[in-house]
Design goal:
Helix content: 25-40%
Radius of gyration: 18 Å
Order of helices and strands: EHEHEHEEHEHEEEEEHHHEH
Number of domains: 1
Structural class: alpha/beta
Bound molecules: fe (ii) ion
Largest sheet: 6 strands, mixed
Strand order of the largest sheet: 3-2-1-10-11-12
CATH superfamily: Metallo-dependent phosphatases
CATH class: Alpha Beta
CATH topology: Purple Acid Phosphatase, chain A, domain 2
Distance between the termini: 10 Å
Number of strands: 12
Shape: globular
Strand content: 15-25%
């Protein structure tokens, strides 16, 4: 058995943006990026695709008016409706209305987990789609919270997955493994989520966005896959292949927008660009995941 899917994140659509904002984002050209995504995914015939949140530029930083926010929701949703594979999504901190800090406009066009949705995505494979902003004041806690409510829901889903012989992949917007900045972009109560991973052997891997950095970490016997943004350098998405022998294989696909890619690259130093794109093995690699092997073999 082989499952093959796409993971993309942080597409940050902003209609008629007045500025590109912080590198590597290219917000003035978000329409160009949005138009390129569905044909790129459709050409690959994935089993399914998952978006890691921050479809939009609501919430903090951008302060866009509500009518622009609602237009961005409609345009992003229309674009992703063109993806032919089953398409799943979780919200990011920038998917709420900057004026009200509510996700109502987003929820009118995108499924919004309250707080966790479990999907049977393929034989013996389930996805846990987490909304880490559920009942959270996004203005105060832009990196989300790993609450008791969501933790209990994930533990129940993991127990059921184990009983049913299914691997469970967690998708959440923000990071829960620290890096050199330690807590920047980290979900509140990350230690609680790490404990749940330690306790629940059906949880084979987690996928995040938010930090706009490619990073893959094999931690204990599971995998944490952080992915760069799709609105600037390195301007790509992940192809992920999971095999019955427990192997995770990923290939980073760059959108065919060479001019935009170069313009985004030119906004940062080579050292900073290297951080966005990660090391070669943060983009293209093959890793044996003991938990996946144990569940599937
Ligand atoms: Fe983002
Ligand atoms: Fe974010």
């Amino acid at each position: 058995m082989t499952v093959r899917f796409a993971f993309l994140t942080d597409t940050h659509h902003y209609p008629d943006a007045p500025d590109d904002y912080g590198a590597p984002k290219m917000l003035t050209r978000s329409r160009e990026v949005l138009d390129a995504i569905p044909p790129a995914l459709n050409a690959q015939n994935f089993d399914f695709a998952v978006h890691g949140g921050d479809f939009l530029c609501g919430g903090s930083s951008f302060d866009i008016p509500t009518d622009t926010y609602l237009r961005s929701v409609a345009e992003a949703a229309d674009a992703f409706d063109q993806v032919e594979a089953p398409f799943y999504a979780i919200p990011g901190n920038h998917d709420c209305d900057a004026q009200t800090w509510l996700f109502d406009g987003y929820a009118a066009r995108f499924a919004l987990p309250t707080p966790l949705t479990v999907i049977d995505a393929a034989p013996r494979l389930r996805l846990a789609l987490a909304n880490v902003f559920y009942q959270v004041d996004v203005k105060e806690k832009g990196s989300g919270v790993w609450s008791d409510t969501i933790d209990e829901a994930l533990r129940a889903a993991a127990d059921k997955a184990l009983a049913d012989g299914c691997a469970l992949l967690l998708f959440l917007h923000t990071w829960f493994l620290p890096d050199f900045d330690w807590d920047r972009g980290m979900i509140e109560d990350a230690d609680k989520l790490r404990q749940t991973f330690a306790d629940c052997p059906a949880l084979a891997m987690a996928f995040t966005g938010h930090r706009h950095i490619n990073r893959i970490t094999a931690h204990c016997d599971y995998l944490v896959v952080d992915t760069a943004c799709l609105i600037g350098y390195p301007l790509g998405y992940r192809e992920v292949v999971l095999s019955e022998d427990g192997y995770f294989k990923t290939t980073f696909h760059v959108l065919d927008l060479p001019r935009l890619l170069q313009d985004s690259y030119d906004r940062s130093t080579p050292e900073q660009n290297q951080i966005w794109e990660g090391h070669i093995h943060d983009r293209d690699t093959e890793i044996l995941v003991p938990r996946l092997k144990a569940i599937w073999s």
